[in-house]
Amino acid sequence: MENIRYEEVDGVATLTFNRPEVKNAITHEMYQQIDDLLVRFEASEARVLVITGGRQCFCSGADLRDRTRVTMDPLARMRRISEVAARLHNLSKPTVAKVQGVAAGAGCNLALGCDLVVVSESASFIEIFSKRALTLDFGGSYLLPRLVGLAKAKEMAFFADRIDAKEAVAMGLANKVVPDSEIDDVVATWAERLRSLPPLALSLTKRLLNDSFDLTFEEALERESQAQIINLSSKHAQEALLAFNERRDPKFWP
After folding, report:
1. CATH number of 55's domain
2. Phi first, then psi: what are they for 10, rounded to 5°?
3. What burial class does residue 7 get, using C-beta atoms within 10 Å of its C-beta: 0-12 exposed, 13-18 middle, 19+ buried?
4. Residue 151, pLDDT score
5. 173 is a domain residue
6. For 44-89, what is each residue's pLDDT tens digit?
7. Domain range spanning residue 84?
8. 216: buried, middle or exposed (CB in 10 Å: 19+, 13-18, 0-12)?
9. Of 57, 53, 33, 52, nearest to 96 (Cα)?
């Protein structure tokens, strides 16, 4: 996969877009590769996935020169894109987007579809679709209102203005902005921290939060109770209790 690099090192998987000549634009073939790699990650021993772009550019969205745009059935093509977005959203393990340079269109929503988003000072987000006479895809219509509120989501989608790194954090699109020279170290630290946390508890917490917008308060309480019962019977909860009694830090990795 020359357009995408993937590696797993010490429990951390990294997926890197590698088409710097077109700002890491995504072809239909790459969507299939991304999907395959997400399946591989979910089945692996890796506990966290970092998604990033090579050469200080995250992803400029769909490749408008991709021949499948005119040769492939539009519905089949959009279903493929939607399947990848759903796969990313439903991963049981935490994901981190490391964003430098532009994240536009589907690339923007791919970053926002990750659990945590760390951006460098050079990063920017743009829902470019309206300028291409298109509507949001890759989950943008679901993600944006939940992250920034309905009015701001409409502003971003209608006008397709570029959002810089500091504004992205202030709006809730990203968690943290750091200098370009520090982003590798910051993301590596976050990934190591996530790797070292109890995976079952993290997975259940992620699901509780992702589903919360569609539940009543009482339904959320019931889900919390079910999740806690599962946690209490896990080996990691036993390790946490033992560590507490022994006055030491619990060890959840390896």
Report:
1. 3.90.226.10
2. 50, 45
3. exposed
4. 97
5. yes
6. 999 999 999 987 899 999 998 888 877 889 899 999 999 999 999 9
7. 4-195
8. exposed
9. 52
